[in-house]
Amino acid sequence: MRADAHHLQLVPTDFDESPVHALVRRIPPGDNLPALSNGIIEAIAELDDDANSLQRLTNLVLRDYGLTLLVVRTANSAPDLRSGRAIQSATRATMMLGAKTVRQLASSMLLYENFQQRSPALKALIVQSLLTASHAREVAHKVGLQDPEEAHLCGMFSNLGEVLTAFHFAEDYARIQTMIRDEGQSETIAANAVLGCTYADLGAEMSRYWGMPDMVTESMHASASTSTSLSAAVTAFSDDLTGALYGQDQTPDGAGAALDEMLKRNSATIDMSREEVHDVISSALNETRELFSNLNSPGDRQLLERLWELARGAIGGPAHGTGKWEAVTPKPSEVRALQRRDRLREELESAANASSGTALGDVFLMALEGALRGGPFDRVIACILDADTGRLVARSGLGNDIEAVLPHFDFPMDINGGPLVTATQRRAPIYLPNHRPMNAIEARWAGSLRVAQFGVFPLVVSGTIVGCLYVDRVTDGAMAAITPDGATLHYVKSLSDILVTAIAARRRLSTAAPVEPARSP
Q: pTM value?
């Protein structure tokens, strides 16, 4: 998808303007997809699959919790990884998937980021989009579709027309819902009567307007039972599955019958057993639960509970929190955080082993991600001592405004080097203000970078300082006053220790100059 797609001219000039074009004209130009203006899609679109782009691509992914989750989950769902060890690191997942796939996944997050933040009433529709996207990816795997990520993208946008109608034409949407509920009209008849076109017509027109892939547009009009394209059939089947389970007036008792009827109706093109459908539904609920766990809203919890009840009614599973459905029971956030740290550290240890074939620059990037996702930090930076110039220089970093900050991390390794050099030369980790209050020089330096607190974890290999791992929290952060606990600082120290091990191992194997992380683009 091209980020400049919203510049296309779609406004007809004749008097026989079609109803769908008239609807598109009623959508304010700045509101048709505001998420495009945030630059993420444009930035990702410009990245290649080479090593120099990895840091920028990873940083873009890590800006968004939902996208991080989606990239990691997609990497873990690849067929050749299903029997292997699960991936937790977005850095490693991004390396595996490449820029093209990550760009598709980022596109699929636009609906969620745009509409759920601006209109809470639309959350149920957005959740349906998320569920359908997950259903589509899992079904694609089971039927052997070549590009499950494309299926995910198509599933995410399958109900785009309804989302646009509910958001931009609320009164029209309410009339359509009334006709369906009180008059027994079908969705197609009701939408045509009120809008002059179907939801699929509007969604397809807008997807063309935004320059989305042709398969996304084609899938909006697809039928699972009659489509000649397997890709389109997978999208339609997944949308039917979401509708059967989670329709607006659905009940747990009715969900089972609706699922049976849906499976029978589509068996000619997508023939799946109930066991296979159970796996698809369970995976989608797990993914949605993980996303909701970051939102912490009572309304979110209530909505998710309803999804569980409907799914259990359809599948016939045991009561909440027991048996096969235990996988979708949320765990306390503290337990999830500790488990995430453990998995990130284990992946870093594996990559640090010289026999893994992982480049040292990539090991550094994984360590930075581990610190950023494992602690309450806004930025993390790897600094390396340049033996030729005698300066401590930032080589890579992740976090807020990182590309603007990195040029400021270039210090002489002497008395004029400032607080970061002084802390590194002492060879012991320190975090201010946890260990002690900042002195005047430290406070002045931190203030120049709008830093509320910072930590330095020296990297010492065979008695020689080679650099440091730096973490901080900015002054205007929402939780700037909260400092990391001792366990968090111990965790970051363990990451720096693994980096030391990785550097030493590669030096032993190389007769050339030490390999350093690639400088930021």
A: 0.58
